[in-house]
Amino acid sequence: MNLRQLSTVNALSDNVTACEYQGVNIIRVIHPLAEAGISLHGGHLLWFKPQGEKDIIWLSEKAIFDQSKAVRGGIPICWPWFGQAGTPSHGFARTSQWSLLEHRENENGVIVSLALEDNEETYAIWPHKFKNVLTFEIGQELKVSLTSTNTGNQPWSYSGALHTYFDIANINDIDITGMGPKYLDSTQQGKVCEGGSTLTFNGETDRVYTQPEATITINDKNNNREILVNNEGHNAAVIWNPWQALSVNMGDMADNSYETMVCVESTIHQPSIELAPGQSHTLLTTISSR
């Protein structure tokens, strides 16, 4: 089934409809400037396509929507930790059910906000009170912001990422700049490394860049475009491509899927963010192409 051709369950406005796919509730945005889809399972943006342009966000052709785990591709929300810092990996936000908070639109685009708050399921994993508001601003560019608020009476710390998968023509013909020189190489057990100003790919890449510039640029040569990734509220940027061996071992990726995707993630790594009662912090990524 083509996700872009979902049957409408409920028209919420001229540009926003509530749809369903394999039991997953999806908010679909069709606006003169762009199209997008957001799954309430995981608060997960599934696609984003500016009008007249190619897709910017990559979604696996073998993505699994059974709600047992995060969908492969799109923008999974890693929270309240990143990676293996806790169980489950990358936290519980990307597999939780978010609620639709609001939606509004004008000639510049559509804004959709979702919410996730502490509940019995989250207490079983992480014993803190919180409210997350996830806002998507969908127009000629895409802005995704995750605002986390401590609603309890004790301080707590968190890390996380906006784990964005980008759609590219071919991994062998892209380069990335703006990620900074220093990184932790996860393929070498987190070894501290230093690289050049331009990143190209010839094998599995899993790096936490610790001094990223505000804007990281993906030069997608075969699509004749640059994808600009502007991050705020972060202290690191993760760049990932699994290459073929890992792709073959993933049931929700085709064997050659690695050729048409790369992840560039707005990340809170180390140090984590500490929030006192009542405090908030926003992690944000803005994505555009030229």
UniProtKB/TrEMBL annotation:
Pfam families: Aldose_epim. InterPro entries: Aldose_1/G6P_1-epimerase, G6P_1-epimerase, Gal_mutarotase_sf_dom, GH-type_carb-bd. It catalyses: alpha-D-glucose 6-phosphate = beta-D-glucose 6-phosphate. Its EC number is 5.1.3.15. Keywords: Isomerase. It is an enzyme of class 5 (isomerase). Belongs to the glucose-6-phosphate 1-epimerase family. This is Putative glucose-6-phosphate 1-epimerase.
